[in-house]
Amino acid sequence: MTPRNNRKAIVAGAGFAGLSAAISLAHAGFEVTILEKHDQTGGRARVWRHKGFSFDMGPSWYWMPEVIEQFFQRFGRSIHDYISLQRLNPSYQVIFDKEEVIKIPAGYKDLKAVFEAIEKGSSTQLDNFIQQAAFKYEAAMKTYISKPGIHVKEYLNREVLSSLFRMDMFGAFSTHARKYFHSKKLLRIIEFPVLFLGEAPEHIPAMYSLMNYADIIKGTWYPRGGMHELCKAMTALAEESGVTLRLNTEVKAFNVKENLISGVVTDKEELHADVIVAAMDYRHTDQELLPQGCSNYSSRYWDKRQMAPSCLLYFVGVKRKLPGLIHHNLFFEHDFAPHAASIYKNKTWPEEPLFYICCPSKTDDTVAPQGMENLFFLIPTAPGLQDTPEIREYFYEKVIAATEAFCKTSFRQDIIVQRSYACSDFVQDYNAFKGNAYGLANTLRQTAILKPSIRHKKIRNLFYTGQLTVPGPGVPPAIISGQVVAGHITKTYKHAQHEVAF
C-alpha cells in the first residue's frame, strides 16, 4: 500500500476516467473516495442484465489493448489478472447489401488479399497508408496524448515540432484516404473508424488515420463477459489500492469559499476533501453544480461547442440463433453522405440509417441463455434531437427488417427482450450535454489546448477528467485522461507551499 500524504481526494464519477484518476491518485498517496450516481461503476459502460441476458450499454469495441495493459502494469498488475481477452477474427464484417459482405480478417496479410481482390494495387497502397498511420499513432502516443493541454509551451519542443507536419493535422481525412484508394467500398472501410469522431471525414483532420492503425494492426479484442468486465477489473484495482467507493451517491452541488471547493453536496450528505476531480459531464459540472459566477466557461462557450454524435440504441434478446451475423457487424447498405449530413449539417433523424450490430453471443456463451442471441443495435444520430416512442419504434422496425433480410429469416416473433436507449436517456442518466454519446467533435478547433481545461481557472482544488477534456472520447483516451489529471494534481501538490495545496 502506498504511504498516504494526509490529503483527501474526492472523484465524482466512476467511469473509466474517474476510476483511472482515483487509482492513480491513491498510488500517489491520496486518500481517495469515489462518488457514483448509479448502482454500479462504469459510467456509460454499465451493464443491463435481464432474463439471463447481459447487455453492455456503452462501448463495445476493445481497441488499443496496450494502453489498457500499460495502465495496469503501472500498478504492478496485468489486465490478464482480471479478465480473459481474445482477439476477434474476423475483426468485423461490413454489409453493403445482403449479398455482398466483406469480412475484415485479423491477419494483415489476409487483409491485403481482401483489399487487392476489390481494387488492383490497393494492397501496396495499404502498406503505404498504414506506414503513415503507424507514424501518427506512435507519435501521438509518445508526444501528444498524455499532455495536460494547459499551456502552448507543452507543444513547443523539438520532439513535438519535428512530428507536427507529418501528423497531417491540417489536411482532411477524406482527401488523405483518396490518395491511396479509389474503391467506394474500401473508402467506406477506411473511413469507418472516424465515423464517431464528430464530423464527416472531409472535415476530420487526416491525423486520425492513426485510428486505422489501431483497427488494423493493434486489432479488435473482446473481454469474456463483455466490456463491463473491464470496469469491474478497474474497480477491483481501485479497491486493492485503498479507494473507497460510494455507489448510489449523486453529487448535487459544489460549495465554494475563497476560490476553493469547501464542500461536495450529495443526495445524502456534504463531504469535504482537499482535491476534487469532476469525472462527470464537464458542462453539467460547470453550469449546473457550481454556484453562479463560479463557472469555468460561459453558457455561450458551451453553446458554441461542436458535439460528437449521440445514438439510438436497442438491446434485443432473441430466443434462437441467427445465421450470418458475427460479433461486430456494420450495415452500410445505404450511402453514408445523407446520413452524415443528418448528423453534422441538418441535425435531423436520418431517412435511411446506417447502423451497427454487436452480437457478442457469437463469441461468448455467458452473455445470453443457451441457444439465444444477444443483439446490441446502434444508429448514430445528431446530438440534441427530440426522441419519442414513435420515433424509436419507427427506427426499430427499420433495423429489425434490415437484419431479417440479411439473415434471411424472420425472428421478430422470437424476440423476448427489447429496450431502447436514446438522446433523452443520455441526458437523464449521465447529464450528457445535448445527449451526446461521444463527447466533443474531434475537430482541429477542439484539440489539445483548445479543449476544456483539466483544471479550473479560479477554483484551485477543482480538476476535470473525461471525454470532454484531453485527450478525448473513447475507452483508452478516458483511461489516459484520468492518469493525466492525477499526474497534474500530484505535480501541483508537490510544488505547493500552503496548507491547501492548490
Helix content: 25-40%
Structural class: alpha/beta
CATH superfamily of the largest domain: FAD/NAD(P)-binding domain
CATH topology of the largest domain: FAD/NAD(P)-binding domain
Explain what the structure shows.
Strands 7-6-15-16-17-14-18 form a 7-stranded mixed sheet. A 5-stranded parallel sheet has the order 9-2-1-13-19, with helices on one face. By secondary structure, the chain is of the alpha/beta class. It has 3 domains: 8-84 and 225-305 and 441-495, FAD/NAD(P)-binding domain; 107-218, Orthogonal Bundle (Guanine Nucleotide Dissociation Inhibitor, domain 1), CATH 1.10.405; 306-430, Guanine Nucleotide Dissociation Inhibitor, domain 2. The chain has helices at residues 16-27, 65-73, 108-118, 122-144, 158-164, 173-177, 184-191, 210-218, 228-240, 282-289, 299-303, 336-344, 389-407, 423-430, 475-495; strands at 8-12, 31-35, 47-50, 53-56, 85-87, 92-97, 100-104, 221-223, 244-246, 251-257, 260-266, 270-271, 275-278, 310-318, 328-331, 355-358, 373-381, 415-421, 462-464. The longest helix is centred in the N-terminal third of the chain and has 23 residues, at 122-144. 48% of the residues are buried. The chain contains 15 helices and 19 strands. Helix 1 (16-27) runs parallel beside helix 9 (228-240), helix 1 packs parallel to helix 15 (475-495) and helix 4 packs across helix 8. It is globular and about 65 Å long.
